Amino acid sequence: MDNRLAIFAVLTVAATASKIFFPRAYVVTKPLPLLFIIVLAFLHPTALDSLWFAAIFFGLMGDMLLLYESKFVLGLLSFLLGHIFYIWAFHRDASGAPFSPALLLGVAAVGTGAMVYFVRHLVAGRKKKYIIPVILYIAVTCTLVAYALRYPVISTAAVGVLLFAFSDFLLAFGRFVRRIVFVEAMVLLTYFSAQWLLARHFAAF
Fold first, then answer.
1. pLDDT tens column, 164-180
2. Residues 139, 122: contact at Cβ < 8 Å?
3. Which among 52, 11, 71, 5 is positioned nearest to 35, based on CA atoms?
4. How far is CA 11 from CA 8, 185, 189, in A?
5. Range with the lowest mean pLDDT among 11-15, 33-37, 45-49, 142-146?
6. What angle do CA 147, 182, 133 make, to 5 degrees?
7. Over the range 56-72, which residues count as b (16 or more CB within 10 Å of their CB) and which as e?
8. 128: which DSSP letter?
9. Do 193 and 163 touch, CB atoms closer than 8 A?
């Protein structure tokens, strides 16, 4: 195994374990996986991709904001900006295949289903103030998924974004539907894996 991947895996497991078993240490361990990715990117001899860097920077800011319950919306906004920069980076990259109507229809259908699902729970849970932010976030995430699926399904771009979208879904599930320890662990494992794969796509370290 690549030593870099091994170190990243250790940092990811440490962040996940501390989230569940050592909450006080989580403030320290949570940003470490993304900080490690950023360090690797700066050490790589090729030019740094500014759009990717902006995306992962806002991801890091979102990580820190979500440590505090009162800053959930700000954390959501930070991740939203990160998604927008990822979309911009994919849009700039002309190597992906053209959009297909079937792809767009499929992504739109899944996104609409997710919107309906969470809006129902937000209304039932008397959390209507989150409806517009959640709908906007899902719409942007669907756009990101559509861009990433222009690449082969087994590519780092496609798998990375799909894991990111799945992590977002689990995060919203834990926040608005039901909190489950297993789900909280999966949020981190899928999220950090997604950021690693997207870094491999854009930063190529």
1. 999 999 999 999 998 88
2. no
3. 11
4. 5, 14, 11
5. 45-49
6. 45
7. bbbbbbbbbbbeeeeee
8. G
9. yes
Q: Quickly count: other Cβ atoms within 10 Å of residue 189's Cβ.
A: 16
Single out the residue of 157, 196, 160 nearest to residue 40, CA to CA.
196
Q: Tokens 């900080």 sit at which residue?
A: 35
Read off the tokens for 8. Answer: 């990243």
Q: Is residue 45 over pLDDT 70?
A: no
The answer to whether 52 and 32 are in contact (CB under 8 A) is no
Residue 109 CB neighbour total at 10 angstroms: 11
Q: Above 60 in pLDDT, residue 29?
A: yes
Percent of the chain whose predicted confidence (pLDDT) is above 90: 78
Question: What whole-number distance in Å separates Cα of residue 73 and Cα of residue 108?
Answer: 24
Using one digit for the tens of pLDDT, what is the confidence trace for 95-122? 767 888 999 999 999 999 999 999 999 9
Q: How many CA atoms lie within 13 A of 72 on its CB side?
A: 12
Other beta carbons within 10 angstroms of residue 11's beta carbon come to 20
The dihedrals phi and psi of 155, each to the nearest 5 degrees, come to -75, 160
**Distance separating alpha carbons of residues 78 and 63, to the nearest angstrom:** 9
For residue 12, what are its two tokens?
């990811």
Kindly list the distances between the CA atom of residue 16 and the CA atoms of 3, 128, 166, 200, in Å, as whole numbers in the listed order.
20, 30, 17, 22
